[in-house]
From TrEMBL:
Keywords (A to Z) from UniProt: Hydrolase
Gene3D superfamilies: 3.30.70.100
Hydrolase recorded as keyword: yes
Catalyzed reaction equations: an acyl phosphate + H2O = a carboxylate + phosphate + H(+)
Active-site residues from the entry: R20, N38
GO molecular function annotation: acylphosphatase activity
Enzyme class: hydrolase
Species whose genome carries this gene: Sphingobium yanoikuyae
Protein name according to UniProt: acylphosphatase
Family named by the database record: Belongs to the acylphosphatase family.
Record SUPFAM superfamilies: Acylphosphatase/BLUF domain-like
Length: 93
C-alpha cells in the first residue's frame, strides 16, 4: 500500500472541544504518523502520513471529530513524505 502525506486545515468550532487530543488518538489508532496543532486564527492544522487508505479514513473521521466539535470544512493538500515517528500534539502556531 502506498504511503501518502496530507496537510490538513480543519475549520469550524474545533478549538476548546478536545479536537487535538481526539486527533492524536484517532491517528495513532490508524497507524498514522504526523502532528496536530491549534492555529491563532481558530483553526486546527495537521500533517497526517501513512497508508493511503488509512489517511483517507482519518480525513473522513475528522469531518466529525469529537462530539463537541462542529467541523465546517477540511482543506487537504498533498505534501511530500517526511521522516516521522509517531503522532504528536504541537504548540499553537
Amino acid at each position: 500500500m502506498p504511503v501518502v502525506a496530507r496537510h490538513l486545515m480543519i475549520l469550524g468550532r474545533v478549538q476548546g472541544v478536545f479536537y487535538r487530543n481526539w486527533t492524536v488518538e484517532a491517528a495513532r489508532s490508524l497507524g498514522l504518523a504526523g502532528w496536530v496543532r491549534n492555529r491563532m486564527d481558530g483553526s486546527v492544522e495537521a500533517l497526517v502520513q501513512g497508508e493511503a487508505d488509512m489517511v483517507a479514513r482519518f480525513i473522513t473521521l475528522a469531518q466529525d471529530g469529537p462530539p463537541a466539535a462542529k467541523v465546517a470544512r477540511i482543506d487537504a493538500t498533498d505534501v511530500a513524505e517526511e521522516a516521522l515517528n509517531g503522532f504528536e500534539k504541537k504548540p499553537t502556531a
